[in-house]
Design brief:
The chain has helices at residues 6-34, 38-49, 57-63, 68-80, 101-121, 128-142, 156-162, and strands spanning 54-56, 84-88, 95-99. By secondary structure, the chain is mainly alpha-helical. The protein has a 3-stranded antiparallel beta sheet. A hairpin with a 6-residue loop joins strand 2 and strand 3. Helix 1 packs across helix 5, helix 2 (38-49) crosses helix 5 (101-121) and helix 3 crosses helix 4. The chain is globular and about 55 Å long.
Length: 164
């Protein structure tokens, strides 16, 4: 006996199939045009969304949906390229990562590439009414997950509005 009805399974598979169709192309385009991976782009984007363009590593890991070790490796690569810097405060264990001016410039170019791809591969296939139905649906589903503490001034809806 299946654990999901046929309709439920088709809905779930649809999410997975769209993701596995679109993400590799977005990754390739981003790498070819900017040298960034999607994960690196996401780290830079999450930092950009914060008021001071910085975030604690543990919160950044939650915001980009990777393990703390994974975000450490990504941040190390970005730091070696001068796109971010790690900040430490005496007497505090937490390490904060900050977007640099060079990181901001590279992110600006990467956002153009990435969001053009998102529009071409995803948004253009939706009617305004489809998007209007999707926004509360995604919000409802996200409510069951722990919130990111790396959200910018507009909170998680800012990412939705920006198309991330």
């Amino acid at each position: 006996m299946p654990h999901l009805t046929r309709r439920e399974l088709l809905a779930w598979r649809g999410v997975l199939e769209v993701q596995t169709t679109i993400l590799p192309t977005l990754e390739r385009e981003l790498r070819e045009n900017t040298g960034l991976t999607l994960s690196e782009f996401d780290v830079l984007y999450q930092l950009w969304r914060t008021p001071e363009r910085q975030c604690r590593m543990v919160d950044l890991a939650r915001a980009v949906l990777v393990t703390p070790g994974g975000v450490t490796r990504i941040v190390t690569r970005l730091e070696e390229r001068g796109l971010v810097r790690r900040l430490t405060t005496a007497g505090r264990q937490a390490v904060t990562t900050q977007l640099t001016a060079q990181g901001q410039r590279e992110l600006d170019a990467a956002m153009d590439v990435h969001f053009q791809g998102v529009r071409r591969m995803f948004v253009q296939h939706l009617q305004r009414e489809d998007i209007d139905r999707m926004l509360p649906l995604w919000a409802h589903i996200r409510q069951s997950t722990p919130p990111s503490t790396c959200d910018g001034p507009g909170g998680p809806d800012t990412a939705t509005e920006a198309g991330a």
